[in-house]
Amino acid sequence: MYKRRQGFGSWIAVIVLTLYCLIAVVLIGNMIISSFKTKQDLLFNTFGFPAKISLENYRQIFVTDSLYKNFFNSVILTMLSIASLVFISSMSAYGLSRYRFKGRQALEMYFLLGLMFPIQIAILPLFIIMRSLNLTNTFLGMILLYTANMSFSLFIFSQFFKELPDALHESAIIDGASELTIFWKIMMPISKPVIFTVMTVSFVQIWNDFYLPLVFLAKRSLHTLTLAIYQYLANFLAYWNFVFAAATFALIPVIIVFLVFSDQIISGLAAGSIKE
Amino acid sequence: MKKVLVVFLFALVLVSPLFAAGQKATLEGDKVVLTIWEHTPQFELPLRNTLERFMEKNSDIKVEYEIKTPDNYLSLLTTAIQAGEAPDLFWHHGTATTDMANLTRQGALMDLTNKVDVKAYSQMSRDKVTWEGKLYQTPAATIDTRAAFYNKDLFAKEGWKVPKTFAEFETLLATIKGAGYIPLSLAGRDNWNILFLFEPILAAMHPDWIIEATAGKARIDDPRVIAAMEKMIEWGKKGYYGTLFLGVDEAGQYLSFSRGQAAMTVAGSWTTTTLTNNNPDMKIGAFQIPTRDGRKPIVLTYAAGFSVYSKTKYPDQALRLAKYLATVESQQIWVDGLGAIAGLDGVNSGSELADEIADANLELESFYNILVLGHAEGKSPTKVWEEDNPKLFTGTVTPRNFVKTLDSMMSYPNL
Amino acid sequence: MTKSKAYIGFITPGFILYTVFMIVPLGFAIYYSFFSWSGMGAMDFIGFDNFKRIFFEPRMSGIFRNALGNNFRYMAIAIFVFIPIQVGMAYLIHLKVHGHNFFRLMIFLPYVISPSIVGFFTLLVFDPNIGMLNTLFLTLGWTNLVSAWFGSPDIAFFLLVGVIGWNGLGVGMVIILANMKNIPEDVVEASIIDGATVWQRFWRVELPFLQPSIINVVVLSSIFALTQFDIPFIVGGLNGGIDGKLDFLNLMFFRYTFGDAYFGETALGFGAAISVVVFSIIFMIALVQKLVFNRLFNR
Fold this sequence. Notes:
CATH superfamily of the largest domain in chain A: MetI-like
Number of strands of chain A: 0
Largest sheet of chain A: none
CATH architecture of the largest domain in chain A: Orthogonal Bundle
Structural class of chain A: mainly alpha
Helix content of chain A: over 70%
Strand content of chain A: under 5%
CATH class of the largest domain in chain B: Alpha Beta
Distance between the termini of chain B: 79 Å
Order of helices and strands of chain A: HHHHHHHHHHHHHH
CATH topology of the largest domain in chain A: MetI-like fold
Number of domains of chain A: 2
Radius of gyration of chain A: 23 Å
Distance between the termini of chain A: 18 Å
Helix content of chain B: 40-55%
Largest sheet of chain B: 7 strands, mixed
Structural class of chain B: alpha/beta
CATH topology of the largest domain in chain B: D-Maltodextrin-Binding Protein, domain 2
Shape of chain B: globular
Number of strands of chain B: 14
Number of domains of chain B: 2
Radius of gyration of chain B: 24 Å
Number of helices of chain B: 19
Oligomer: heterotrimer
Largest interface: A-C, 106 and 103 residues
CATH superfamily of the largest domain in chain B: Periplasmic binding protein-like II
Strand content of chain B: 15-25%
Shape of chain A: globular
CATH class of the largest domain in chain A: Mainly Alpha
């Protein structure tokens, strides 16, 4: 493994990185601290520690507004969507990048199109399609939508799969493995770092998504956490003390996901080294 | 791999009830379920209260509401109507924008003439919801206006008085600045807040122009309009909005006032609840910027209510809800929920502050509305106004050129 | 690579989903761009009039060129400034400098915050009257540093770029970092044994292995630069900030399609035309990039 850098250069790097991260620390830290302040405190003491720790903001969002229900919705929706997205996009990327066939380049561009236009422009035809399939106001519909939005994941997977050595594939065929087995048992385990990267980024994108749930999960019992927080944000100054609490609450699962998966990324290192 | 698949399917089974929650239930037990759409979370509270009362009185109907966001509302509504899945009742701007024309042409609105009683409402109020002689929307009793809010505690401490004439107002601005406070906090970044300052200035300086323009007898390209714009810019240069106001956004404007940094702020009347909630300890007062000869002008726009979808599955029940929404009782609930100003006899204003705001003797049309009502076919002077009015402060756009551009997009059939 | 036909099985499910839910609606949007339509009621076929308006009508084309310019400026900064920074940060973390776990989290975390909260942070930091920066400078007596920040036409754009960068740097960095984990150790160790310095090691041995992720990040950054919406919308508003310095193409699209919060006039046909134009620009750039990279790296 790399020796720990002890040189002077590395200390400069550490200082620069620390200063950069300080911004996030200050802002996010302030957000978390402020979630424990009362409105008055927030107004006059925006940047300091709470004069008195108050839980009234959390009481409002948990008890009065039952945000935990929306939290639950978000968790289910996001996790199922991620599973489906990673599964389908990795398969498609694999097919696209490890087989030679006519029109492959064109197909790659085809799959990139999804990143190039704002979804709002297509909302009417999309709505009609969803409705005719009876998918509006269902989690299944949303999961399909998020899976269909695979351009980003597919692109990252393709670039990675292109790099995998042919030798692995050939030796597995010689051993009599089917294409599918090769995919699942050999290629995927090696791809752990990429898989977890895609999962983490997609998790954030889906967790924070606002527009699609606004249109397709209009029923209040189906609202995601991001939608529920909007009621505070829209009436911002009236409710900004709740905004802090809700935002802190929304932040926690993502931090957990990130920490959990980053351990996997590290352990992926061991599995990821390709010995020729 | 098998394990992953099993877990996946298991999870799917666990949450499959959520999938079934799909189709909008229109019948729950023996209750009819209606859906109603509103456009902003700011109205959620009054809507919820109103619906609760309605459901108490009509136990055979359940009403579910959906709140969208202001930016997306119209597109989502039109999407729903196009797709044939429109809500039973929905809000829209009425005649304040092209909403009413578009929706009636589409045949999306149920004709409510003679079905909903709106006799008690004022003409201005009814104009908002009537089209080609027919009633298509419930009227609203809330009035939106602008006002100068001031910090009563600060005024008392410094001995400042509410001005009675325009000249007194200008002197007051200079005095406050001299005492080290920001006279008027302003969101230089927000074209709407600039509008809400401009309109009272115009109303105070040249109410005659507004009256003439409303009757179609004056152009936008008019020295009086230019004078009002120049006055607004002049106050900026004198530092009456604070020296750095160009970097302030809406939230910053109100926070600056709530913290006592700014002595006054001119804002829409709907911000009363925000300002009072922001700093409950501060005593807030309001007044209209007076004219040179001491009259109190007030720029008014009436809100609009709800329309019934022409193809609703339950026209009788939907009509009952529409009727209720037009009653004095439901309007009172609405006005109370917003702390708003009421424009209907029998409805009291939602707060003492609302009364101070409504203390006026000269009702005037809003400048923005004049642009809306007088726009030439296919042109949008409002878009140009929205995009460019902050540029008045940076000097990129001059008042003279601005009014010329706006004027070229208007039509003046009476001139 | 093989010539096996198995690819059909792998690609089909994704292809179907993607086509039904993304491409078909897109096709409709392109169709709309040839009409004058408010989203409801009559659709008037007007051919290329929408497009002519975007490119040739004095006011509109000025707005279009301003926004396009901003998008391109941002793209240049994203590719030539942000990507090197992301590679640098990823490498430092990869080398496990002191505190690397903490850095990795704090660089990525801003991405997790939803744009509305990011907008709120800009208020907290940059508001001229009550924001952190000006308050700090005033207390320290550095009054010449006090500024209107987003109210200053000269620096507003760069501030916004900084905010977007702060929010999004983590994503690219994580992608590059994942790639770094897959650099074969033996090659690197061989170079250490051969006496290569850190610089030489990085440039000659490791960088070539980072091809896939850097290509990734360049293409993705370009596309994101041209489709920027969320943060400019929250920070600069729909009208593109002071003197239009913060106007971007997708902001323009949104405001002409859906109007504003107070009075929305929907013009779906015209808006579709704007997004078709934006889409075409992105498509051409992405295509060029793909061809260049394929040629350059023989894939």
